[in-house]
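Duplicate of #3305? Posting structure anyway:
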């Protein structure tokens, strides 16, 4: 048996509770979009970091855009160029890092390996990405780490 047309129209309008739920969903979606937009503004403190000879760690600073102070996560990793992973520095696979609520920056540390055979300057990169895409990490920023020749 199909319902009569008059029965369908007599059911009335959605309750205010249903309308409130819809508004809440839209508000949550807007908040998430705003959160993701702000997350995309994470950046390095410098375009290039120069490591001095005899330094054993590179400290890289990540800053977030002003106005967003909630807990934020990002993914970071190293990528070789002329510097050799395992010979000039300890490589870092993709790793999720927390930028805690209220903190404007996070420090990343990469171990530099003393290399007596390095005759020229060498470079590797540190990348930062957005982990919110599941298994795919969207690239956000990259900085170069310059290693001096051995003295």
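Output from current build:
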């Amino acid at each position: 048996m199909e319902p009569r047309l008059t029965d369908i129209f007599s059911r009335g309008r959605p309750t205010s509770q249903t309308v409130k739920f819809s508004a809440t969903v839209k508000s949550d979606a807007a908040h998430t979009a705003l959160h993701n937009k702000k997350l995309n503004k994470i950046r390095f403190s410098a375009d290039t970091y120069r490591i001095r000879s005899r330094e054993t760690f590179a400290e890289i600073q990540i800053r977030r855009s002003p106005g967003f102070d909630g807990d934020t996560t990002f993914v970071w990793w190293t990528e070789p160029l002329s510097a050799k992973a395992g010979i000039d520095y300890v490589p870092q696979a993709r790793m999720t890092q927390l930028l805690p609520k209220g903190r404007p920056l996070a420090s990343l540390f990469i171990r530099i390996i003393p290399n007596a055979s390095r005759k020229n300057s060498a470079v590797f990169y540190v990348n930062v990405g957005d982990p919110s895409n599941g298994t795919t990490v969207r690239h956000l920023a990259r900085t170069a780490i310059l290693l001096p020749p051995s003295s």
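Confirmed duplicate; merging threads. Residues 5-37 form one domain. The chain has two helices and eight strands.
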